[in-house]
Amino acid sequence: xxxxxxxxKANQRSSLLWTLTLMVLISVFFSMFPTFSKEVxxxxxxxxxxxxxxxxxxxxxxxNFSSILGFYAYVFAYISxxxxxxxxxxxxxxxxxxxxxxxxxxxxxxxxxxxxxxxxKLCAAFSSILLTNIGFIVAATTMAHIVKxxxxxxxxxxxxxxSLFFIQLIFLAVGALAATIISKIKSVLPYSxxxxxxxxxxxxxxxxxxxxxxxxxxxFQYFDxxxxxxxxxxxxxxxxxxxxxxxxxxxxxxxxxxxxxxxxV
Amino acid sequence: xxxxxxxxxxxxxxxxxxxxNVSFSVEEGEIFGFIGPNGAGKSTTIRTLLSLIYPTSxxxxxxxxxxxxxxxxxxxxxxxxxxEVFYYDNMKVIDLLNYSASFYKKDCSHRIQELxxxxxxxxxxxxxxxxxxxKKKVGIVQGLLHSPKLIILDEPTSGLDPLMQQTFFELLKxxxxxxxxxxxxxxxxxxxxxxxxxxxxxxEGSLIKVEKISTLKENNYKKFKIETKTKIDPNVFSKAxxxxxxxxxxxxxxxxxxxxxxxxxxIASLDVNNLWIEEPDLEEIFMHFYQRES
Lengths: 265, 294
Known about the structure:
Structural class of chain A: mainly alpha
Distance between the termini of chain B: 30 Å
Strand content of chain B: 25-35%
Shape of chain B: globular
Helix content of chain B: 25-40%
Helix content of chain A: over 70%
Order of helices and strands of chain B: EEEHEEHEHHHEHEHEEHEEEHEH
Low-confidence stretches of chain B: none
CATH topology of the largest domain in chain B: Rossmann fold
Distance between the termini of chain A: 28 Å
Mean pLDDT of chain B: 88
Shape of chain A: elongated
Number of helices of chain B: 10
CATH architecture of the largest domain in chain B: 3-Layer(aba) Sandwich
Structural class of chain B: alpha/beta
Order of helices and strands of chain A: HHHHHHHHHHH
Radius of gyration of chain A: 20 Å
Number of domains of chain A: 1
Strand content of chain A: under 5%
Oligomer: heterodimer
CATH superfamily of the largest domain in chain B: P-loop containing nucleotide triphosphate hydrolases
Largest interface: A-B, 22 and 29 residues
């Protein structure tokens, strides 16, 4: 448990910052909702000149803006983008810390197995993300209730909100895997941004072309908010796919972390 | 009982050789030196013992238990100090040491205080603000705070001023008297001579020799360099025990092993301008002792 608390403490500040960022972001988005929903007609006119492909890639359908769920679905793409950056940074950061700070000689000569080390680290990362999501859901739900124009479908709203958690878990696992594969990580952010934006761009591409096959390639599409509204639930294939991606990434991370040689600095 | 037992340990980094077929054992209560030039394989051997890296073949055991299979159990009783120490920069010294102590199921707070006092280490400072030498002190305290039965030191003296080195060696001797076994790797012969009972000499990944320091000292050559006012016949020094005799103008240099008195009398009879008598450095030990054997 000492390693778990050590990691929690080490990540305390950045987790808090990310949580606040997400809370502020969703609050700002929702505070714009009343204006958007009132002005749907004029907005529609304004957007007529825009190319169709662009609007599709941004998932921009004006009709959605009249309901709070539709509006939520639209802004959620940016929430999950932020969340993904947080999660992948956390995954890469927490497992590459011993290489970056050259503290492997300290930690790995302690009477613990490497399995215990990586487990403690991943549990700490998981907990940070869990706390972030609690903060986010509280903020999102509160704001939605303040600005709603019609009764809110709580179940669907919650299903969309909690999908942030699932997307973050995927990116956490992928980040952890990246940290164990790339042996010399000096700084976390370039790698995490590269991973996140790669998938985000694929996701935009998938939306604009409507290519269903591309959806399998990017976690940003696994919990598509508009589909959740339409189907009133998750798409089981993508739920399973998420589980497979997380399980494979984590297994590979464990294997690599346990086997690698820790060289002198 | 052997505390460390290394058997045919080999580590390849891809195709390059780290160490090859290294075997030796360290007895309980011994201070065992591990000496060789940089890149000879000292750290590779030590890191394998600590299961930081995994051997290509061969085996190693500590306290009679396999280093790979029983690593966590073994490490409860090991204190390790690397040549370069790095810790979590934004932690305070005391927090780092407490974190370190939390891995061992015993109360180390008293020992931390005691060691910090001895090493003159400020516990309240941030790691980030410490100088290299002070970080090293943190490393020493960190390695000794749980009173380990085996202390493994990998070129530990770099960055310590002579006074601190003295204190550090005293600490090690005390630990040794309390029963701790010490494995001390270094490329500085004098510090190994000062501290160790036996020494293993490693070169280019292979163990050349394991020898008692006392034997090594008996075999020890002295380096003589004599500058005279006038040119002299170098044959004055063509005695038994003299090697590598060289003359350059008025300067004669040679290596000597044996009773010093006759040679000093010989020198006294010369018109000497300047005189150097030096211990050969490690490089020369390698050259003159082991070139023939390898």
